[in-house]
Amino acid sequence: MSELFLVRHAQASFGTDDYDRLSELGHRQAGWLGEHFRYRGLSFDQVVCGNMTRQRQTADGIIRGMGLEPVLPDTDPAWDEFDFEAIVAAWLEQYPHEQPQPDDAPQACSRILRSALLAWAEDRLPGPLPERWDRFVGRVKAGLASLTGQPGDGRRILLVSSGGAISMVLRHVLEAPVGAMIHMNLQLRNSSISHLFFNPKNIHFSGFNHVPHLDHPDRGGAVTYY
Q1: pLDDT digits over 146-186, tens only?
Q2: What's the whole-number mean pLDDT along residues 86-108?
């Protein structure tokens, strides 16, 4: 069978004026992951990512960490993240008392995002949104089919995407409910690896949210979620 390595982008620049770029730690996470792949003797027949800067920068850092010449990954908008800022804004418009305060713990933001995503999935958010839930589901399924439906055996594909798209893939493969997809989304660590085996007829789940490249004594504090 062939293999699909699903990597969530490395740490982005949360809290800055441009979230869609890697932080300094994010660049290191991507490079460490590439070094881990090189140490394991892994190579990839195809590298794919969405159109987002943080995804492309992560793919580039992995390739450099593997000691390879920089290459442009194949890009497919199916693997772009959903617009979580618009979804949360729509939720807070409906429930303004949920607005987080500057001194709130990160868990408060996660709680709001969980509620907003569930409302999005149930079509309970007001006003126009950049993307409806059903369209998000459809494009991720189409992206997965384009990768796993190709003829040939023994291929190894590296996909660099975001938490929402990766958790949607896993929801589809595991036939899991929406709540499970949201839980997986909020648990995915930056630069983590999830893993599938596949052929044109079947897809099998193999691993979730692993960060072996961060499990080093000198990398304390390197496990992040944003």
Answers
A1: 999 987 789 999 999 999 999 999 999 999 999 999 999 99
A2: 80
Residue type, 139: R
- Closest to 169 in 3D by CA, of 131, 139, 129: 139
Token pair recorded at residue 60: 């580039």
DSSP for 36-48 reads HHHHTT---SEEE
Question: Which positions ≥6 away from 48 have C-beta within 8 Å?
Answer: 73, 74, 75, 76, 79, 147, 157, 158, 159, 160
CA distance 187 to 209: 8
For residue 51, give the amino acid letter: N
Half-sphere exposure of 27 (CA within 13 A, CB side): 4
Read off φ and ψ for residue 83, nearest 5 degrees.
-85, 85
Judged against a pLDDT cut of 90, whether residue 69 lies above it is answered with no
Strand 46-49 to 74-75 pairing: parallel
Instruction: Give me the mean pLDDT over the 71-98 stretch.
Output: 92
Please, what is the average pLDDT of the chain?
93
